[in-house]
Batch of 2 targets.
Target 1
Amino acid sequence: MANAFDYFSIGWADPYLFFLTALGTFAGIYVGAIPGLSVTMAVSILISFTFSWDVNEALALMAGIFMGGVYGGSRTAILLNIPGAPSAMVTALDGYPLAKQGEAGQAIGLSTVMSFVGGLVGIIVLAVAAPVISEFTLMFAPRDYFLLAVLGLLLVGALSGESLAKGIFCAALGVSLGMIGLDPLTAEERFTFGSLELTGGIPYIAAMIGFFGIAEVFIQLHQIGIQPIRQNLDKILPSWTLVKKYLPLSLQTSGIGVIIGALPGTGGDIAAMLAYDHAKRVTPEPATPFGEGAYEGLIAAESSNNAAVGGAYIPMLTLGMPGDAVTAVIIGALFIHGIQPGPLMLTETPHLFWYTVGNLTLANLCILVFGLTGIRLFSKIVQCPKGILLPVIIVLSVVGTYAIQNSVTDVYWMFGCGILGYFLKTYGYQVAPIILGIILGPLMDVSYRRAVISVQDDLGSFLWAMVSNPISLALVVGIAVVLINNLRKSRAG
Amino acid sequence: MNTTRPLENAKRQSKPGELVFTGLLFIGSLAITYFAFSISGLSSTSAPGSIPMLAAVFLLISSLITLVKTAKQPKGTEVGSFVTAITPRVVLFFAFITLAYISIINQFGFLASSLAFLFFSILVLYRQGFLLSILISINVLAIIYVVFRVIFKVILPEASIWQ
C-alpha cells in the first residue's frame, strides 16, 4: 500500500510531471471546448508529439488531455448549444436554456464542480475496482478475449451511429485495416500486396489523426461563415448551498457514469444519456422543467461523463481493451511506448497503474482550478475564427503525424484516411468503430486462433466451450442481447 | 438541441452521391473479401486468413444492406447537388492545398511549406486581406515552431531542395 502511494504521488511530487499534467488538462479543456474539435481529435494529435518522450511524461500529458477534453466539451454546449465533445450533447439540453436565461456563469461553475465530483468518483472506482478486476481477468481464456472484443465492437457499432449496418461496416473495416501486415503467429503476409512498407501494418496513429482530425476539419468547412456568439460571464463560482443541494444526485449519476464507461465500447455520451434519464426519474418535480434549464439535468450529464473517464480506464488497464474511442487512441500510444496494458499490467508494472491514477486525480484537480478561472481567455480562444483555426489544425496534424516515425508516407496515410473519413461521416457513418476495429482486430485475431488451436482446430469444441464456460456464456449472452435489441430497433425504425 | 450539421438534416432521404458512395463501398468490400480469401483460403479454422475472412463477410453483408436501403430511399432535394452539398469549392480548395502542402514539405522543409500553406488558406478562408493573413501566418508558425521544435524537441521535416 505504501508503494502504491509512492507511485501515486510521483506525478504530484515532480514539478515537471506536475506541469505536464496541468498543461495537458489546460490544452484538453480549450481544445475540447472548441466546437468541432473533439477530445479524440485532441488526444490523437497531441499524444503523437509524445512518442519520443519518456513514458512517465507522456502518460502525464495524456491523462490531462483526456480529463480536460471531456470537461471542456461542456463549455460550448452551455454557451453556444454546440457540444465540444459528444459526451457534452446532453449537457446542452439544460445548459443552453440556462445560458439564455442569463445563468451561464452559474451553470458553468456548477458543471465544473460536478465534473470534478464525477471525475473523482470515477478515479476512486478505478483505484478500487481495477486490481480486483485484474485478478478476475486472469481467469479469462483466449476465447473470452475474442468474445469481449466482439462485444466491444458491436456495442460501439450499434450505439454510435444512425444505422446498425453502418456501425458494423465501420467496425469490420477497422478490423480489416488492423489485419494489414505480417500475421503475428505465422509471419504470413496479409493485405500487403507485396509492399514492404505495408508489412509493418498501417500507421494507426496516423489513421486516427486522419479519421478524427482531418475529416472533422473538412466537415467544419461547411460552417466556415458562422460567427461565434459572444456571451457575458461574470460570476461563475457556485454557492456552497447549491453544491450541497445537488451533491447526492451528482454521486448517483457518477455511479452510472463509471459503470457505463467501464463497458468496452461505451463512453461518456451514452453514460450522460442514461444519467439524464435517471435524473428525470428521481426528480419528478424540478424547479425548472427538464430541457428548459433544469440544474438536475446539467449535473447528471456532467457528473456522469466525467466519471466515465475513470470507468473507461478500467477495461483499458485490466483487459487491454479500449473503453471508448479516446482510450483506443491511448492504447495505441501505450503500445508505441512499449507498455502492454492488460491483466498482467497490475502485477508486473503496478507503478504505471498507480502513477496513472495519481495523474488522473491531479488532472481532475486542475479541472477545478482552470474551470473556475481564466474565463476571459477561454472566451477569446473559443471565439477564434475557423478560417484561422482549421489551417492551424492541419499543420498540427501534419507535425503530429510526421513526429511518429519521421515519415511523410505516414502523412499521406493521414490525409487518405481523412478524406475517407470525411465521406463516411458525411453519409452518416461513424469513424469511432473503425479506430476500435484497428485496435481490437489484432487482439481478436490472436485470441480466436489461440482458442481454436487449443481445441485442435475443432470448431465444434470451440463453440461448446463458449456455452459451457460461465464467463464465455455471459459474454455470448451479452452479444446476443445487444444484437437482438438493435435488430429490433432497426426494424421498428 | 440543435447540434446537427447542414447535411444531416435530410434524414431518410439519400444525400447527393450517397448511392454511388455506398456502391463503391460494396465494390471495395467485394475486393477485400477476395483478398482475404486469397490469404489462406478455407484451409483451416485457425489459418491466418480466418479473421480477415470473417471481417470481410461482415463488410460485404453490411455494405449490401446499406446499399439496398439507400437505393430504396427517396432522393433528397433540400441540400442541393453533389458539388454544392458534398464537395463545395471551399472543400475542394482546402483538399487541394493540403495535398500540395504535404507534397512539398520534404522539398521545401516545414517552415517554408507551412508558411505558404497557412498564408494561402487563411487568405481564402478568413478573407481579411493579404497583410493580416501573412501576419497571422507568421505568428502562428512561430508559436508552433517554438512550442514543438524548441521546447518539445519534435523533429520536423527539413528542406531537401537546398541540400
Note: Confidence is low (pLDDT under 50) at residues 1-10 of chain B.
Target 2
Amino acid sequence: MKRTGVFVCHCGINIAGTVDVKKAAKELSKHKGVVHSEDYVYMCSDPGQNLILDAIKEKKLDNVVIACCSPTLHETTFRNASKSAGLNEFQCEIANIREQCSWVHKDMDKATEKAIKITKSAVEKVRRNESLEPISIPVTRRALVIGGGIAGIQSALDLANTGYEVILVERSPSIGGHMIQLSETFPTLDCSQCILTPKMVEVSKHSNIKLMTSSEIQEISGYVGNFKAKILKKPTYVDADKCTLCDECTKVCPVVVSNEFDLGLTGRRAIYIPFPQAIPATYTLDISACPGLLPIACGKCADVCEPGAIDFDMKPEIIEEEVGAIIVASGFDLYEKEMMGEYGYGKYPDVLDGLQFERLLSASGPTMGKVLRPSDHKEPKEVVFIQCAGSRDPELHCPYCSKICCMYTAKHAMLYKHHVHDGQAYIFYIDIRSGGKGYEEFVQRAVEEDGVLYLRGKVSKIFEEKGKIKVWGVDTLAGKDIEIDADMVVLATAMRPSEGAEELAKKLKIALDKDGFLSEAHPKLRPVESVTSGMFLAGAAQAPKDIPEAVAQASGAAAKAIAILSQERLFHAPTVAKVNVNLCTGCGMCVDVCPYDSLSLKDGKVEVNEVLCEGCGTCSATCLRAAIQIRNLTPLQVSEMIKVSLGG
Amino acid sequence: MVNLEDLKNEAHKLLKEGTVKYIIGYERGTNGLLPIPAFIKNPEDVERLIWDPTCVFNLTRFLVDEKRRKASEKEPDERPVGVIVKGCDSRALVVLLQEKFINRDDVYILGVSCEEAGVLDEKKLAKTLKGKKAKNIEFTKNDNFVVMTEDGKTEISAKEILAERCLECKANFPVIYDILLGEKVKRKSDKPFGSLEKFESLSKEERWTFWKEQLDKCIRCYACRSVCPMCYCDECVADTINFAVTADTTAEEKAQKIKWAEKSPVTSENFVYHLVRAIHLAGRCIDCGECERVCPLDIPLRLLNKKLEKEAKELFDYEVGFDPDQPSLVSSFKDEDPEDFIR
C-alpha cells in the first residue's frame, strides 16, 4: 500500500471561511492509504512547504496531495517542493478546493463534504500516477513576427537587436501599418511618420531581420521551440533590387483605382508605391486592377521601365521557415463604414472616419495638410466629431470601448483648430476616458486653449440640407436638443480585429475572444501570451490599444519569445497520450480529432509524437476501444476518482 | 428485378476464375423459409445461393470474423472474399472501410438491389399468417407480396410484412459494389424517422418507464453485439468477461482494466451496457436492424440507434454509410455545428 500525505490549505479565509479545514484534514486521515494529514494557513508559504518536505521525509511518503487553490497557480510550487524532498514531481497532485469549492459555495457542512470528496479523488489519482520525467526538445533559435505595423516592427527590432534572426511577415506591400497613415500622435503631437520611419528603415537594414512583404501565413505546424511556417509570397511583378523609383511606370499606367493609403480620398495607378517612405522601397503591381500581365493587354509600364524591373512572369512562392517562437501582431481595421449608415457614412462625402481625417491633416496627405472638404475643397468652418461611432453599442454595433477614440478625437479637434483658427469644433461624447500619462491634461488643453465644445450626448440623425450637414443631437447635461449646421462630420469609428484575423487565428490554433480579438492566456498575469505555448500577442490584434501600449506589449512579447529562444532545450510535460496497440484497430478517429497533429497511423496502428502532444485527452475521449489514454489520467484513474467521489 | 440466375452466374465466374477465395451469400435453411448464411468455395455450389425477401441477414458481419481468421493464418490467401450485400449492408461495409477495419482490396462486393421492396420481418409475417407456414414469397410490382402457404396463394400488402427499417430505408440499393445486380431504384419510403414519432411524443418520465421496462428484460446474451458488424472491438468496455488478454498484455495493462458494468442483468448495469453500445454506434449504425431482430426478448433496440441517427442528421447534417472517405461523426466538426447544447 502506497503511503500518501494530505495537506489542507486554509488560504487565509479563502478556503477556511467556507470549508472546515480541520474536519477535512481529520476525515482524510481516515482514508485508506493516507498516513499523514494536516492543515495549515498558507501551504504555499515557506513554512507551509516545509511541512510537506518534512512529512515526506519523516513519514516516508510515496506521494502527496495538496488541497488548495487551482493547479494553474501552485502546482509547480508544490511539485518542486516534493521534488526537493526526493519524490518524483508527478507524485504530487493538487485537489482544487478553492475555485471549485469554497469560492462557489456558502453552506459550510456541504462545502466541507465536497472538499473531502475532491481531495479523496486526488488521493485515488495520485496513488496510480506513474513517476515521469519531462520530455526534452531542442529549440530553433529564430522567431516569426506576423504583422508589420508598429507592434510587429517593435517586436522584430527587439528580437533582432538581442541577436536572434527574425522573419517579419506583412501582407501589404509595405510595413508601417496604420501608424504610418496618422498625422500627429497624442498627447505630444509629434509627427507620426517622423517617429515611425526611422524604425522602418532600421528594419529594412537590419542584418537579423528577413522582411517578407506582400506575404501571408499559409500554414503553421509544430510546437513551441520548433514551429514550421509556410508563407505565401505573392508576386509584386516588380524586382525591388532593380527598381530605381523613377516613377516612369505610374505616368503611363492607364488604370486609376481608389488609394487605400488615403482611404479612398485619392486615387492611385495599378502600378504604385504605397507611400513615399514605403519599406521595401519599391513599386508594386496591383494585379486586381491591372488590365493584364500580357504585353498584348497593356504592358506599358514594362515598356518604359529602363532598369527592366518589371517582371510579368513572377509567380507566387511558398516559402518554408522554421522558428522557435511566433509573435502575432495582426493589428486592427476600422469598423466597416457600411455598418454606420445611420451617421450617413458612405452616403455623404463630407462624413469621414477618423483615419480619413488623419490623412486630411497629414502633411503628406491628399490636401498637403490643409483641412478641406472632400466634396468641394472648401475649408470647413463647423466640424462635428462623434465619439463611440460603433463602440460601446452592444445592441447594434460593438459592445466594447475602442479605447483610443477619446484621445484621438481631442487631438483631431485640436489640430483642426490649429489649421482653421476661426472654425468651431464640436465633440459628441458619452464619457471622456483619458487615463494615461499626460492624457487628461491633453483633453483639458483642447477645451481650454482651443475652445473645443464638448457635448455630452448622442447624435440622433445626420442629413444633408443646402450644402450643409445637419446634425441633430442632444446635450444631456443641458437637457437641450442640439442642431448644428456642420460642414464636416468625423466619426470615431470602432476598432475591430483586422480582416482575416479569424482565419489567421485558426491557422495558429489560438483562440479569439467574443469580439474577435486574439485571446491572451490570462487577462492579468499573462497578457502577452496566447493559450498556445510559444505564440505571443502584440498590439491591437489582442485588444484596442494606443501606440505606447502597443509598443510596450510588443516589447513584452519579444521578451517572452527571447525567454524561449535563449534556451538550448525546452522541456515538455510527459503527461501525454499513450497507445495500447493491442486494442487499437487503426480507425484513425483520434488522428482526426487531435488538435495538435500529434497522432498518425503507422501499419494500421496509431502512433503518438510525444513532443507535439499536449495531453488534452480528446483522443482518449474519442476512442471507442479505450486504446489511447493520457499518462497519469487513465480511464482507471478517472473511474477510481468517480467511484470515491460517489462514496464508493 | 434481380435475377437469381444472374447472381449465380456471376458467383460461378468469380469462383471459377479464382478472383475470390469464397463467397458469402444466402442459402435456404432447414427452419422454414428463413435462410442461413452460405460460404461457397466450389463453383458448382453456387446452385445453393438464393435471393428473395427472406434474405434479412447483414453478411458484412462475417467480414469481421474473416479478418480475424486471416490474421491468425500463417500463409493467408490474399485474395478477396466475395460478399453479397443489400443497400443497408453496403452502408455497413462503407463504415468498415471508413474506419479502416476492412481493406477495400480484401473484399469483392456483389451488390444486390432491393429495388422497390425490401426484406421481411419474420415476426410480422408469422402474425399475419396466423400460424400457417409460408413456403415461398415473391414481391409483385403493385407493392404486394405473394405468399404461398399450404392453403395456397395469398397476397399481402408490403407494408404489413416488410421490416420496419425497409419502410424507412434511405437507399435500398448498394452504394458501393464491384458488381451490381438489379436496378438502382428506390422504394417510395415512409418518413425517414417515422418509427420514432410515437416514442418522441412520450414525456421524460414515460420514456424512463418505457426503457426501464424494456431493458429490465435484457438477459445479457449479447446477441445484439454478436450480430452487429460495428461491434468488432476485441474488448468490449461494457463487458468484463472477454478482456483481450494476449501473451503480450503487460501486467500494467492488466492492472488498468476497469469494470465499467457488472455482468449481472440488473437495471443499472443493463443501462450501462445498452447506452454505451448506443453511444458507440452514434454516427456508425447504418440501421440494418439486426440487433433488434435477433433479440430473444424483443427489446426495441433499433429505436435507440435510430434516435441517435436522427440527432446526427439534425444537429450535424451527418449521414452515415455513403462515403468511405468522409470523416466519422465524432471525429469531425464544422464551424457551423451547433453549440447550444454546451452550457
Note: The first helix of chain B runs from residue 4 to 16.
